## 1
Amino acid sequence: MVDRVCQGSVFEIAFSTKLEKTRKQTRNKMTSQQTTQSTNSLSQSESILRVMPETAMFDVMGGAARLEKRVLDHGFVALVDCMPRLAPVGKTADFSIVQSARVSYGEGTKQVNEDRGLVRYLLRHRHTTPFEMVEFKFHIAMPMFVARQWIRHRTANVNEYSARYSIVPDRFYRPSLESVRAQSGTNRQGGDGLVDAGTAEEFLVMLDRAEGLYKDYLGLTEKGVARELARAALPVSVYTEWYWKCDLHNLFHFLSLRMDPHAQYEIRVFAEAMYELLKPIVPISCEAFEDYRLGAMHLTKLEIESIKSGSPLATTNKRELAEFETKCAQLGIAIPAAKTSG
Ligand SMILES: Cc1cc2nc3c(=O)[nH]c(=O)nc-3n(C[C@H](O)[C@H](O)[C@H](O)COP(=O)(O)OP(=O)(O)OC[C@H]3O[C@@H](n4cnc5c(N)ncnc54)[C@H](O)[C@@H]3O)c2cc1C
């Protein structure tokens, strides 16, 4: 486990230093390509007008084929492509959002600080389509039970490893002995704290037994049982893989739900890894996302009225009251209480 965490950090450091170097190389290469006007079949076609960029462009992924982060014990998130892949030197892929938004307003000004203002305005006011102009394509390996939660996000394009066509690889998720969560007493859908060491050990033994079925799975497929049927015996801790492409607007929606503390830890770590990969590519949008979505709070009409009037929240719903208490604590204000007479 520790080894994997270390591998992850080393990769990130190597990446960040290498990124700048590769960006410079790509920049130089692009500029020389522009001047020599490379001839390919596109430029030879007389019916196609080939407009070269006004400024030098760089590869926002620093020339990398994939940018990868290790997640859990056998999982990974790899960014394999994005749109736009090229951005004007001195800008970021956020430029594409501004470019499409400006079609509404005409050219306007092109200053970077004004680009930032526009992106922040668009996100704050939920002008969503410009964010759909940016796309990210990931290759992900995750446990099957994580994939089941993930696939509920319908706006992405997905292509998954076929366990009908191929043998499922021998990879199963197992938490460490020290991280077996206990069932939460307050949230029926979540874990909270840890179980005692003995119970944790018992749970891992059960996982051993479930993983042991893999041997039978292999044996029976070799004897001729169809792969599409044999897989029915494998536990949901088995890993699957897919390519997952999503635009930035829907990706922010996914991330706001799956980076939230209410999301299950095992999907949250994937969402956090994805966010780390895309943040250097669209830093302005991510800053706005953090300011106006991730770190923001939604107040209901009843909550606003309670805060304004200083009267208790006009509901007897325990859950709603508890949510209001949490919000008041976050805001650093006292919970409006019933006024005592006399
Ligand atoms: C903490 C947590 C707990 C959850 N618990 C459960 C659970 O117990 N059981 C369960 O079944 N699910 C559960 N879910 C899944 C949840 O209900 C959503 O299905 C999931 O989060 C996807 O959200 P979405 O539909 O907004 O996202 P997406 O599918 O990515 O869609 C994004 C947005 O596009 C629009 N959209 C997409 N498709 C359509 C459509 N066909 N029609 C209209 N609008 C559309 C909607 O505005 C939607 O919000 C849980 C999710 C979370 C985060």
## 2
Amino acid sequence: MEEVFVLAEHRQGKIRDITNEMLGIGESMANQRGASLTAVLLGHGVKDFAEDLALRASKILVVEDENLEYFNSILYQKVLSSLISKYNPFLTLLGHTAFGMDLAPSLSVELDFPLVTDCIGLSIEDNRLKALRSIYGGKVNASVSLRESKGYIATIRPGISSPKAPGEKKAAIIMEPSPLKGAIDFKKFIEYIEAPITGEDITQAEILVSVGQGIGGPENIPMFEELAKNLGGMISCSRPVVDRNWLPKERQVGISGKTVKPKVYIAIGISGAFQHITAMQGSDTIIAINKDPKAPIFTVADYGIVDDFKNVIPILKEKTTGGLK
Ligand SMILES: Cc1cc2nc3c(=O)[nH]c(=O)nc-3n(C[C@H](O)[C@H](O)[C@H](O)COP(=O)(O)OP(=O)(O)OC[C@H]3O[C@@H](n4cnc5c(N)ncnc54)[C@H](O)[C@@H]3O)c2cc1C
């Protein structure tokens, strides 16, 4: 039976969200082909992960090797390509993450399989893989069709799909021997360094007042800080605000900043580039204030105000002075 492979991603003792998101996409692709869904787990001491994944896929392939304890694209490639050569999955999914971006291109070259990266949708048409990719900072969606091949590799953008919920049936866990012959010294993991948290931690906020380049300049920051204070929340921002030194890096939301899931996320003067949206779209309620009605942020907003922030913020501040009523 044909298979879809999903490479499980884990870091610091945790399965990453992208793994379960890919399992959801992998299942729908497997259903389109009458294929089965296989989670591939590489690591060291990953038995608990295998048990968890066994409730979300039809089969789990595990390669245990102390040299796989930390992600290393060269070692991962060796192991993954040997599993692909053995099982011949028609599709292998990797996260469009630092791991996947490092691993997918060389894996595709080694196997001579077409690769499509940063996908937001996948389907099979006329026996070919078709992918939807969002390009030009989210302004255009491109539908691409890959050449016919016995196998494909795709990297999936994080946050575009809901995680696959655990089922009741437990899949078989198959231990595969490691093809590795020891460590390599020219590329190795040295240390995991967590970015230090100084001051407030925006990932813990229930309400975030998040500002973008559209606020015009640092002189306007106090207005938003006051609003955040009235709401019992914190201030966060998009990347250009940090690049321009209007706010410190620890306030940045996005793929190169922090991922946040507050109860309320108020995006002010933020256009909604995917690098930003990916990291805040899990918020319970999103409110966007932007003077451009076509700004992509409105595609993820629950409530939208199309106006200049200078007309809106004073009213919000007035209504929230003394706290939320
Ligand atoms: C590798 C990489 C990593 C990145 N990582 C991140 C990241 O982690 N986080 C991140 O945010 N970005 C990141 N970016 C940048 C991202 O692509 C966008 O450039 C950025 O998110 C845009 O920020 P913005 O929305 O604040 O600014 P802009 O795109 O300039 O948008 C400003 C918005 O404000 C609106 N506006 C202007 N004036 C007003 C007004 N008076 N009232 C109301 N609205 C107004 C405009 O209509 C516009 O929509 C990354 C980019 C790359 C290439």
